[in-house]
Amino acid sequence: MTDSLSGPRSTGRDALLGRAIGHFAEHGVGDTSLRALAEAIGTSHRMLIYHFGSREGLLAAVVDVVEQGARDTLARMVEEARDDPDPFEAGMRFWHLVTDEALVYGPLFFELSSHAMLGLPHAVDLRERLVTTWLDALVEMWGVRGVPKRAARLQARLDLAVARGLLHDLLLTGDRRAVDAAMRSYARTAVDALVGTP
User: Fold this and answer.
1) Which fold has domain 3-194?
2) The pLDDT value given to residue 164
3) Rounded-to-integer distance, Cα 30 and Cα 41, Å
4) How far apart are CA 57 and CA 51, in angstroms?
5) Distance in angstroms (rounded) separating the CA atoms of residues 37 and 45
6) Is 99 left (phi over 0), alpha (psi -120 to 50) or beta?
7) Given a cut of 50, is residue 9 above it in pLDDT?
């Protein structure tokens, strides 16, 4: 998700943002002050203020990167789904991609989601994007398979709820085997009901 921010060519603002996201992914945002964050990531409070203006400015930048990462993942998912004749396999490939990222960034994603629920300024835009953006992509995936739009939208909401619930389960239990098995069962049922066997 943050590879473009932490590569060898990254300098200044992007490098600091990449390190901040890495720190928050590992330790959470909580009430971390800019001074504490600066010390943890090897920079100065002054540099964080220079690049981001405030803690809220930094958190808004973090939200933008996390959300862009989600959009990039969705774009890959939709593109691959178009080319794969088997919707079950396409869905499971996407699931594995999402779970790999969630093992690193999932706690930060869920923490920022809670900030959006609370209406915190740096995350308020996420209220819409964390649902609508994903629903639209899932509807498109089902639409590619010939599923009528109304049925696709209902299924997309179920897909999103199940996927996020299972990611939450994974992050709490660490039991990827059980979570993957549950997703396989769910995906097989959904595909058979809506599309049938390719």
Assistant:
1) Tetracycline Repressor; domain 2 (1.10.357)
2) 94
3) 16
4) 9
5) 8
6) alpha
7) no
Q: Rounded to the nearest 5°, which phi and psi values hold at 172?
A: -85, -40
pLDDT band of 90, cuts 50, 70, 90: confident
Alpha-helical runs (H) found in the chain: 3-6, 12-27, 34-41, 45-52, 55-83, 87-117, 126-144, 149-173, 176-194
Where do the domains of the chain lie?
3-194
Q: Contact, 186 vs 162, CB < 8 A?
A: yes
Q: Which two tokens stand for residue 50?
A: 């220079």
Question: What percentage of residues in the chain have a pLDDT greater than 90?
Answer: 57
Buried b / exposed e along 136-165 (16+ C-beta atoms within 10 A): ebbbbbbbbeebeeeebbebbeebbeebbe
CA distances in angstroms from 98 to 110, 151, 198, listed in the order given = 14, 24, 24
Examine the pLDDT at 17 and tell me if it is beyond 90: yes
User: Is residue 94 within 8 Å of 80, Cβ to Cβ?
Assistant: yes
- How many Å is the Cα radius of gyration of the chain? 18
Q: pTM to 2 decimals?
A: 0.81
CA atoms in the 13 A half-sphere facing the CB of 181: 4
Contacts of 172 (CB under 8 A, 6+ apart): none
Q: Let me know how long the chain is.
A: 198
* Type of residue found at 39: E
